[in-house]
Design goal:
The protein has 330 residues and is an alpha+beta fold. Helix content is 17%, strand content 27%.
């Protein structure tokens, strides 16, 4: 399968909150629904509501943002039992801990797992944090790291309150990328300008102090994933919010997945009085969730409009799936 890719080369720290007002709970993934909503707001600003409407969300499919390092592109670890052998390691407990801590697999390792092939690696192929696994040596490297920053919540009726945030920093030759599936015209005329404006505007929290700004790059060469033609399952590369008819008890029993609660405050609203309003929360299937093949899974655009808001607010759960062959689930 071939995908267009957009590389996000961050020129400032990135702060991804899980919805806590004090930013204590930090996310480690820039999710597909956040990116799509931000692109919609940028496209609306650029082209106006006479050209951009709800159909924008159905014109393309987008993955969540995954790390890259030089020419290595990482993908989320599927929720399956990995066919992974760590050479010169006889300690099964240590091996199990390393596998559990993993979040990201380099593309060739991910392809091997999707095709059910055994992967042999060394300790040095793990990043310093243990979250990334590559064919090359990552010893001593993190690709991205978190740094604590103290901030102050100003309270005009009481003492100001200090609190801490964890900002994500990338190495100079690292960043995030997204997979995109759409037609050439929409990609070139709508998505590219929207990504450029989004890079100038920033993503995540504390954009007003410079966080989350990036330079988008649009490589001519597409990213090719060598996947099984007739896989016995599908793995999700974005957040997935299913239509009711897409779910069944038997399908869920055969699936391996994690759920993630998505909420948060409104942003990019025309009237500032609504900035403190919270979207309705929903649960979605997380990246790496695995479902049995034979089901036509698409997902939906979920209405999360707060009661009383004069315009609609959506969270996109139309997911990007790829085939996979598995022998056993987690």
């Amino acid at each position: 399968m071939e995908f267009r890719i957009v590389k996000l080369k961050f020129i400032a720290p990135l702060l991804l909150s899980k919805g806590s007002a004090d930013y204590t709970f930090i996310d480690e993934t820039l999710h597909s629904d956040t990116i799509k909503n931000a692109l919609f707001a940028c496209a609306l600003h650029l082209f106006g509501n006479h050209q951009i409407n709800e159909s924008f969300f159905s014109r393309f499919t987008l993955s969540s943002a995954f790390p890259f390092y030089d020419q290595d592109f990482f993908l989320p670890k599927p929720f399956i039992r990995l066919n992974l052998t760590i050479n010169n390691t006889s300690d099964s407990y240590k091996t199990a801990k390393k596998k559990k801590k993993l979040m990201w697999l380099e593309r060739s390792i991910f392809e091997s797992e999707c095709n059910g092939r055994i992967v042999n690696v060394e300790d040095e192929n793990f990043s310093a944090s243990g979250k990334l696994l590559s064919r090359r040596s990552l010893r001593g490297r993190n690709v991205y790291r978190f740094e604590e920053q103290q901030r102050v919540k100003v309270n005009y009726t009481a003492d100001s309150e200090p609190f801490f945030t964890m900002q994500m920093h990338f190495e100079p030759n690292a960043g995030l990328y997204v997979l995109v599936r759409t037609d050439d015209e929409f990609f070139n005329t709508i998505l590219k300008p929207a990504f450029r404006l989004l890079g100038d505007s920033g993503v995540g929290s504390y954009r007003n102090v410079g966080n989350g700004h990036f330079l988008p790059e649009f490589p001519e060469e597409k990213l090719t994933l060598h996947l099984p033609q007739n896989g016995n399952a599908m793995v999700c590369l974005s957040l997935y919010c299913p239509l009711r008819e897409e779910l069944s008890e038997s399908m869920l029993r055969a699936a391996s997945y994690q759920l993630i609660k998505r909420g948060g405050y409104l942003s990019s609203v025309e009237d500032e009085q609504y900035m403190s309003w919270r979207k309705k929360s929903i649960y979605m299937f997380q990246e790496g969730s695995v479902f049995p093949a034979g089901n036509n899974l698409i997902g939906k655009l979920a209405d999360v409009t707060p009661d009383g808001l004069p315009h609609k607010v959506y969270r996109d759960g139309q997911a990007l799936f790829i085939p996979i062959n598995i022998t056993s689930h987690v």
